TrEMBL record:
SUPFAM superfamilies: Bacterial luciferase-like. Pfam families: Bac_luciferase. It comes from the Bacteria. It comes from Amycolatopsis rhabdoformis. The lineage of its organism: Bacteria, Bacillati, Actinomycetota, Actinomycetes, Pseudonocardiales. This is LLM class flavin-dependent oxidoreductase.
Amino acid sequence: MKIGIGLPSQVRDVDATVIPAWAAKAEEAGFSSLGTVGRIAYPALLDTVALAAAAGATRTIGLLSTVMLAPVWPATLLAKELAGIQAVSGGRLTFGVGVGGRPDDFVVEGTSTKGLGKRMDAALDAYRDLWSGKPVGGGDNAGVPGGSVDVPMLFGGFAPAALRRMARFGEGYIAGALPAPQVVPVFDAAREAWRTEGRDGEPRLVAIAYFALGDPDRGRANAHHYYSVAGPDFANLVSSGVNTTADALRTTVAAFTDIGADELVFHPTTDDLTDVTRLADLVL
């Protein structure tokens, strides 16, 4: 199982200047990828900004959104930004995508939480049109240089429709911030959807977890605040599951290895740059 690390882009009131240094240090340490989690209505960074900054600061490490809430964006504009990140990174981006549903994130005029499934399907069509080089805006010009661009997609979400989209259009599935035993049924459902669609091989299965080593109390508080919009029960579940010790981290790695995850991304809950080295020393 590969081990990735998140960027602290979702940390409340993050010091944004740390992002390039964090990315470079993670690449040097040997992590498989740099992940992002993001919301619009939160005092942190957009996924696209963090991924672009990380792309410019690194050369080999993968870039992965886990997951980006696609329907809060105008689809063609998001497709264009992702194509640009893919270009400047030399093809290292994987687009992890989900539907979302928090009303305060839908700030663009004409978007709301209504009809998310249909809008997600329309967005996927718009992404494929732009990435394949079709003309944009009613004129003759393509939206990407070189004719086309490939942006692999992973899908998150628990609804059957999300799993069907994953099996039809994606390379695999990203689980939510849940303990390994609770991820087992969704991984199994992803595998079943993959087989039902007649896809060869197996879907790429990615899990996420949270960690804070330098300041565990602050890390747990940040995680709780971030997920409080989902209600106290879920906020307590995530914050209590933040990995703050060597034993906890190793147990988490073993648990996700045992359930067949292909990659586990540890997202930070503080922006303490020294946590990159601390985590690497314990899990790589």
